[in-house]
Queue: 3 jobs
Job 1
Amino acid sequence: MSYAKTLRCRRCEREYPLKALSICEFCFGPLEVVYDYEAIRKNMTMRAIQSSSWNMWRYKALLPVGDNIVDIGSSVTPLVKAANLGKRLGLDELYIKNDCLNPTNSFKDRVVAVAISRALDFGFEVVACASTGNLANSVGAHAAKAGLKSYVFIPADLEQGKIIGTAIYGPTVVTVKGNYDEVNRLCSEIAENHSWGFVNINLRPYYSEGSKTLGYEVAEQLGWKAPAYAVVPVASGSMFTKIYKGLGELHRVGLIGPVRTRMFVAQAAGCSPVVQAYASGNGQIQPVKPNTIAKSIAIGNPADGLYALKTIKDSGGGASAVSDEEIVDGMKLLAETEGVFAETAGGTVIASLKRLVEAGEIKNDGPTVAYITGSGLKTQEAVLNALRTPTLVEPTFSSFEKALKTLQEVA
Amino acid sequence: MAKHKVKFTFPQELMAKPVIYNLAQQFKVVTNIRRADVAADRGWVILELEGKQEDIERGIEWVKSTGVRVDPVAGDIVEG
């Protein structure tokens, strides 16, 4: 049973029935799912959650899904106490939410699982997305599991290697002879003219709700409490706002106490429209042309940028932008201290966390959660030139001993 | 007739130019403004364009050529 009631415009508050629609037909504002929280409060008990399967569907009551659930084997991802990294940064209670361990190795499995489940409810036979990586992987996998046809649109100049992780699932991959902006506009038109479920266009109100599970899981894993600080990579701003919304919902339905989590945005300096807007204080998102190695979060015109700013303000949080060099250092630091190989977005989070601690914005006075949302195996080229080259030896013991001596002298 | 929902973002130097008026006049496109935020140094307008598909496409190309940024109203769609 779904407790989702309607869609509501976040600007003018007009309501719509639950259908495949993401923009208010009157003011063109974004639509959001409205729930019957009183009914959820009565039925979603801690005991019921704890007796449910160890995956995101244990919070189904707070998700806009009906009877159709598309699951490719997701699990609650680990919340790891990062003692080594915490020691380096001066934080006694630092945790890594390791979302690399989703079935297609990124948090997109959460949002796409909700979108494709809803696509089945709506009777779509075709689903689609426009993506350069993680989203395409996840849509391909979930569409295959659901038995739906899928189309994935990508810029024609995308490296061949990035297509493999999507093409293996059998979608129709359409390479568009155009730049990023042109692909954006084309997909917007296709969504308006075809009866397809475009996961991040007409299914966006449902899709984005999947990110709330990143808030639910962390609260449960911390012993049913919200963290003191959260550092989150920001692209469209959707995940950032939904994590905070998810924590607030848990309080609203009586599962945790008041939420005092301070939410921090992490962006790459080469694409940081939210950080720039926060720093300027004028409350305006100025679109930018991305220029960074952190391609999975390189969105120049973020759909939920204004709402991300509001979340920073409401939570008493902040924002940090870091250089590409800092991102690589962040990836290495996380890997070398905690054994987690994050993609560039994760490097952005760790580098931002380091800066925020140094600036005194994040203090050593409560649990801090760094959200690592995708695996480094997808962006290996980012660190290719930053790692030590292997040590070459002859197949003799003496050769190895000589090399070892040299290595120990360098260390 | 086709309809497109778009967002125009104006740089400071184009704030005083009648870009939307010229779009409607030169390309026979009906411009229907739904939301806007305009200040002396910057501004954006969210509007619906209605007309023949080819006229709208030519019109959008012209608007871009003036230096105004044109985006889908929902923001960037291509995600990582």
Note: DSSP finds two helices and four strands in chain B.
Job 2
Amino acid sequence: MKPIVKVKNLTFKYDKRIEEETLSDLSFTVNQGEWLAVIGHNGSGKSTLAKLLVGLLEPEEGSICIAGLNVNDTMNRNGRSHIGLVFQNPENQFIGTTVEDDVAFGLENINMPYEEMVKRIGKALKLVDMYEFRSHDPSRLSGGQKQRVAIAGMLALKPSLIILDEALVMLDPKSRRELLSTLQHLIKTENITVISITHDMNEAASADRIMILEKGRIVKSGSPSLIFEEQLDLQPPFAERLKRELITRGGEFPENYMTEEEMVRRLCNYCLIV
Amino acid sequence: MNKLILGRYFPGDSWLHRLDPRAKLLAGVYFIFVLFLANNWETYLVLGLFTFAVMRLSDVKFGIYLRGVRPLIWLILFTVFLQILFTAGGEIYLDWGPITISEFGLINGVYIFCRFVMIIFISTVITLTTKPIDLTDAINILLRPLQKLRIPVDELSLMLSISLRFIPNLLDETQKVMDAQRARGTEFGEGSLFRQMKTLVPIFLPLFVSSLNRAEDMANAMEVRGYQSGEKRSIFRQLYWRRRDTLSLFIMILLTTLLIWLRTEGGIGH
């Protein structure tokens, strides 16, 4: 496993006149193929981190290296085409006049030939289950559908690093789960790295690693099971809560974090034993 | 807002709907120039019949076209009025100091009126049968040569298409802000003109602020997706020039020849 993202002593503040730093002395790495979830309260600097990672903002101090390239030196089109970022508000990311046009926007920017564009757009829209809506205009789509289109637009560019800045919030729980598993599958098969900034504990729980930001600092980083066990003020996903509750009532469960499926299987076995 | 017909698109599948937007735009602009060839009643009759035929081809009800003329009627009447008052020649019907109403004045007034109405009808035909985005693409392609003069045609057309895309959003947002202000006790459309104008301030201010925020988000999203102005981009929305498009331009040439043949040399009355 080699690190694809290397952040070193990253410091940033929006207003140079004030003392308080939005991000202070952040250092972390993300390995290729890893899914990192960044969680934290509002104003903890999560979205700022996302903007810094793609070079929309310039760090005050420190460096960001993605795939061996320094973000601030080489932030031209070539540097960016392998990083995909999806923002929270799907409305303001929708540039095209139809679904197809919007997915095409990123591809037009890299001057891709027409035939190739058609292929990629079709594929990306099928991945997010929006193919039937390809000729619809944005005013006829729901927030969740627009978010899917934004994700398709990013996937069409075939990025090696995906940053999701609360990109799944507008989706209803069912389609969020579906899209999450689609993404997870894609990541495994294409070896894509994901940094997902989120408030959703289910999304965070399915990551390989969780990083907690507080007032611009990393307060904790580790596997989901570790984080949910130690950080008591976080509301863990349902399966974890159930497990803890059962342990206090004398149930026998493994220490590490269990997904919902594992929990179900475990409980079924449990019933059989009893 | 719904009363404005000029610039609206009516979905349909008529011969005109299927025409390439470039052909429509070229023919439309050409028509406006050709209008100036007309100088007697025969030529105006030919042009009128042509306009009427085009309107019939669009599958859009005649009433809708008339609604397109309505917002401009005062401007038209004003021009016609000036034309009647200040053109001299022929028999004089009324002489009142510097103001005279003459035969030629009246005839010219009628002609100007017809000319205006035909221009509006033809441009309404184009916008009613062409999606705004197709029109933008057509403008982009037709203005390409201007890039040699360092006019940023691609950027301008992208701006145009983004604005078109955000019109419904802005309308929604205006409605939202108005509702929010109503909930706070503002009453719209009441009181003196000055008071009505004052109630618009708390609508436009939030609208401006949110538009600016939106623009910033948008710029970020565009940049993240690799947009750079001035770079070569490929085009996803392809336009296809078919035989009927060439045919439509050929019809325009036929119309021109007919007009040149029918028009009287040296203008009215000679």
Note: Chain B has two domains: 15-144+243-262, 153-224.
Job 3
Amino acid sequence: MASVELRNVQKRFDRTTVIRDVDLRIGDGEFCVFVGPSGCGKSTLLRLVAGLESVSAGSIHIGGEDVTAKPPRERGIAMVFQSYALYPHMTVHQNIAFGLEMGRARRAEIDAKVRAVAETLELTPLLDRLPKQLSGGQRQRVAIGRAIVREPQVFLFDEPLSNLDASLRVQMRIEIARLHQSMRTTMIYVTHDQVEAMTLADRIVVLNAGRIEQTGAPVELYRHPRNLFVAGFIGSTRMNFLPVRAEGSAAGVVTVGLPGGARLDVPVAGAGARPGEALTLGIRPEHVRLEGEGAALAGPVEVVEELGDEQLAYLRAPDGTLLTARIPEGARLREGQPGRFHLPPAACHLFREDGTALPRRD
Amino acid sequence: MRDDDLGLARLRVRAAWLFLAPTLAVLAVVAGWPLLRTIWFSFTDAELIDLENYRFIGFANYLEYYEGEWLGLLADPAWWRAVWRTVWFALVSVSIEAVLGMVVALALNARFPLRGLVRAAILIPWAIPTIVSARMWAWMLNDQFGVINHALLGLGILSEPVAWMADPDLAMWAVVIVDVWKTTPFVALLILAALQMLPADCYEAARVDGIHPVRVFFRVTLPLIRPALIVALIFRALDSLRVFDLIYVLTANAAGTQSMSVYARQQLVDFQDVGYGSAASTLLFLVIALLTLSVVLLGRLRLGGESTR
């Protein structure tokens, strides 16, 4: 077990800068998830930690030791790849044992370790099979087994579940979470799926264009996104954004004018906004109400998506923005009919023109 | 439903035969007919000067007991020497080509500046017709005017010029060297193609796990490219068992370097003995067929079988 520290890490490929000044400390035993859209540099960052790529500037420390110039095998890491990276001509047993045979361990010792790992991952009946005879989930478990058996200080996962179908993904997600609970080893996990990030992470690192946008616990990112990007990225249904104008600002409250003329007093912490300032109001679809307190937006309901236990309703606001609401099933909204979306002030987020958030009270 | 399926299957089979028909017709004319004719001639006493008049003489060209003596191809020590010489040549040259081809392919698979240019350049020996390259090497190996003797003398490695083609052992090695020079690019190209199909992530996994590159080569790379390697070696083995032009240009009909093909040609053309020459050609065909079959069986190569992935 070990902490991982990145200090001012930069990575350039030719003239393209992929990682810009990343500073990050991942605690011992922490489950840290790098999340971001494709091309944001999250996989590159993981490969830098692994030593599969070398940094252009800055340094990487694992367990307090500078490993910047060290090859992967001296970093005490194990990695699980998106494509599993199993050796196609070796059985499950050979795949798991291959990384151990280097260490001059005795055959019986290796066999015992492989069997122990296979037992935890329920791979025992499959030990003599070839990868091509396994399902996607089983292959992924073999890849994880190959990492576990080496008893690394740090586990690296590079989008390990993205090649699995949806139900298997949920199942494997739970297995990985269970694994972390039992092993308590530092894990770094890369994904573009924010649900995986929310459910697995002790701490999420949101990356965008090679920069860290925000780091924090899942709930913190959900409640207090630091900027528009994080607000839009975290949350399983994307946050609604509405252009608004600040009309007044008192202690702890910013009054904004909504499209259509209604006014809303949004609670904020600290400094408010200048009157007349153009802001963006954000509200999550699950916080939109069909009735109740707060100002409302009226407009035609364009589409209602039935999800069984709930519905997603899309409403065209007076300024043309399409707003989404997650509403309980049975709500009487009809496609093409006028509707009203209420915005509870305490659930609203405000962002300045440069994208940064006004701090929220809770 | 079943009737429809069967009808569709029958239609597909018919289409397949239709597409195969031209190939089969051409094969029958250019391969099947000459082969059958050669086998037929091997049972006759035909002569090149008059191919219309011949008698069927059974296996006399192969083996015959005549006035207390065994005669025929199977009793001819010159034929057996040609057989063993050809097999030796095939084994030695194909082994060297496999090792060198692997080295070249691994080098060309690495990333370095001007790789495309080097990949193209390495193919040049393979692109030159054998007659031309054999002639070129014959001049280079010439005992009096050859550049090789000149260079070796200049470097002080030789004290007097060597007549490379005069000594049968030296001459066979010269033939091997020229063959290796010419066909290593072919082997390298096939291996390179296989190398490029290898899963890159397995190598990264091996790097992370700290497995030594030499071990990765023998435990991962070699098993994964084995099918391609065996195909390349079968191609090369067949070619080298039939070797003719290289030896004919370098040493003509010299008895000490005759391969099976050169022997057959000598009987058939120089000695005008079409029956006997055809018998040699037929045996050559059988030897190659048997060797190929055993290689395929021994290598347990599942041609057209399941792939490794």
Note: The radius of gyration of chain A is 24 Å.
